[in-house]
Structures are given as C-alpha cells and as structure tokens.
TrEMBL record:
Name by which UniProt lists this protein: G-protein coupled receptors family 1 profile domain-containing protein
Membrane topology of the entry: Multi-pass membrane protein
Location within or outside the cell: Membrane
Annotated source species: Anser brachyrhynchus (Pink-footed goose)
GO molecular-function term, one example from the UniProt record: G protein-coupled receptor activity
Predominant localisation class: membrane
Length: 272
C-alpha cells in the first residue's frame, strides 16, 4: 500500500524527472546553437551532465516507492543512494563557482577552468564515491527488499562528524554568499535606479542570485533537518523520522529544475 509519504515522494521525483529532462534537453539545444566555450558554458555543461546522472537514477526510486519493494540488489541500492549525494554536493560546488566568478568578475582561461572542473569530477568519482560505496550501508545487515533505510549508519561517530561538517560548510557558504550577493544587488539597484533592468551588470548579478535561491530552497531545508535527524535518530525506534528525511532529501533533487527555470527567466527578461 502506497502511504501518503510515498505519494509525496512519487510526486516530487516525477516532477524532477519530467521537468529536469525537459530542462536538460532545452538547455543542451541552446548551448549547441550558441557554440560558446566561455567559463560559464563549461560549468553549465557539467551541471547538465550531473543532472543527467541524477535523472537516470530517479526511475529506480520511483519503482521502489510505487511497488514498495526493491528489486535491483544491494549494490544498486547503495549506488542510487550515492548518486543523490554526489549530485547534491557537486552541484553545490558548481553553483558556488558560478556565484563567485560573477560576484568578483573573475576571468579564467579555458584551460584553468577545465582543469579545476576535471579535478572536481575526479575527486568525486575516484575518492568520495568509492569510499561511500565501500562503507555506507555495509556495516549493518538490511533486508534486500528494502532500500534507502540506512538510518543505523548515521548513528556511528565518523558519519555524525562528516554530516555535521557538511552541514556547517554548506550553511556557512550559503549565508556568506547570500549577504554579499544581496549587498551587491542593493548597491547596483541604488546606482542604476530606475532603469536597473537595462544594465548588463545588474542582470548578471540577478542571475547569480537565482542560483543562491536554488541553494536556499533545495539544499538548506535538508541540512537543517539533518541536524535534528542526527540528534534524534537513536531515539526513533519506530523510524517515524525516516520518511521526513526522505522527503527533505527528495527536495534537494528539485535543483535539477534549475535549467528549465533559468531558461524561463531568460525568456521573460528578454520579452520584457
């Protein structure tokens, strides 16, 4: 029987799959037409690749929540779990790069940008992902018909420390970038008022703020709840908190709608 929590998850992941796929297709078409090789284009292309990996994993999650049974084996379960976290933190890294580049008007040569982007992928694919797959979900025995029920793992001291560090870093970076970005937008608004939309500099900073909003809406709720979940997990004998954790985690995947939303914003701003 599909519970109300599973219904929410099915709706969220279905929206991700439909909207994310459309966004990847449309943005890929736009980039192909422009044939630009700027720093921003390189980062956007990597975001599209990241979103594609996530979108490929979503049907597995939908199957599980609809059928109420995992049919793809333990390794696939851990792999699908790893993808969602890899996607979240790597997307966050690229968002931060976009915001910082625009905030401080940094100029990078294509080779430098390509180098650090490759470094991010290698760090994730060759270090973080193998460690995650080797240890996460392996220290305890779980039923093969269940998936994403690794609540026992999070109670271990190393996992608690890692989670607190990730929460602290993400929240601190988001807070600092939000304050700086808002102050820059305010100064530009005062400087160019009332014709602010006609200035390229203001529009560029407004677009950067879009990515901050995505981080605040998609990533922040999960990490705030994560702190509460870690503190209360050992008391949650009936696993009542687990569905809420899954919903907040599903909310992080809504960032794959960024390309579709970004295109809509560009279309609206150009028409106005």
């Amino acid at each position: 029987m599909v519970t109300r929590f599973h219904s929410v998850l099915i709706i969220l992941y279905s929206i991700d799959l439909a909207g994310g796929t459309l966004g990847v297709i449309v943005m890929s078409h736009q980039l192909f037409r422009r044939k630009s090789q700027s720093v921003m284009t390189i980062i956007i292309i990597n975001l599209l690749v990241l979103h594609t990996f996530l979108l490929l994993s979503i049907p597995f999650r939908l199957s599980y929540y609809i059928l109420q049974e995992w049919k793809f084996g333990t390794f696939t379960c851990r792999l699908v779990s790893a993808i969602i976290y890899f996607h979240m933190y790597t997307t966050f890294t690229f968002y931060v790069a976009i915001i910082i580049i625009r905030l401080f008007r940094l100029e990078f040569k294509k080779c430098y940008t390509t180098t650090w982007v490759i470094a991010v992928w290698l760090l994730g694919a060759l270090v973080i992902a193998p460690v995650f797959l080797s240890y996460y979900g392996t220290s305890k025995t779980y039923p093969s018909s269940q998936c994403f029920h690794f609540q026992q793992e999070i109670q271990e001291t190393p996992m608690v420390i890692v989670n607190y560090c990730l929460v602290g870093i993400l929240m601190a970076v988001c807070a600092v970038l939000t304050v700086i970005q808002l102050s820059v937008i305010y100064k530009l608004a005062v400087k160019y008022w009332p014709d602010i939309n006609s200035h390229v500099e203001f529009r560029a900073q407004a677009k950067s703020f879009f990515f901050i909003l995505v981080m605040l809406v998609c990533f922040m709720p999960h990490h705030v709840f994560r702190v509460y979940y870690i503190r209360k997990c050992h008391l949650d004998k009936d696993h009542k908190l687990l569905p809420y954790n899954e919903i907040f985690l599903a909310l992080t995947t809504m960032c794959c709608l960024d390309m579709l939303c970004f295109i809509c914003i560009l279309c609206f701003s150009s028409s106005s």
